[in-house]
Amino acid sequence: MKPAPDAGSRKGRAWQVLAGVPDPEIPAVSVCELGIVRDVLEAEDGALQVVLTPTYSGCPATEMIERDVREALLRAGLGPVRTQMRRAPAWSTDWISEDGRRKLRDYGIAPPAACASASAQAAGGEVFVLRRDEAPACPRCASRHTAQIAGFGSTPCKALWRCLDCAEPFDYFKPF
Ligand SMILES: [Zn+2]
After folding, report:
1. What is the pTM of this model?
2. CA distance 171 to 25
3. Alpha carbon of 139 to ligand 1 centroid (Å)
4. Domain range enclosing 104
5. In-domain check, residue 136
């Protein structure tokens, strides 16, 4: 039986390092908070194997994330390091953590609407009730009086919206 990784173990330290690796497109949020890092394993050959699920298959950020993850772990002396892409199940905006959603909002990006997940309900946790077809709230004034300006924002992952109350345009991280 394998012991659970504690903070002092190689895997535990790897998770701590990865929690400090920012997303290349949204540096306010870490790759862990976005749910990109799925698992950290120790391979039989002694390499640390980081399992990643990219947010969008077409996102050029994926290669940068692989590089940043490898470099951060090597700098922390946790090498050798390997990254492994896991594309199934596909990444979902539902994987963004509560901390990640709050940081997106603080950064001026409306976090994606999330479906009430069966696991969250089973755990008795807080369940998002915003439906996917509802307008996102303005990240600045929290008004729901918002309108989409363009289907694509600063990246294909986001749509450009405008708040009709404070007139500020903002990026909306599209749920999918
Ligand atoms: Zn507003």
Report:
1. 0.75
2. 12
3. 7
4. 96-173
5. yes
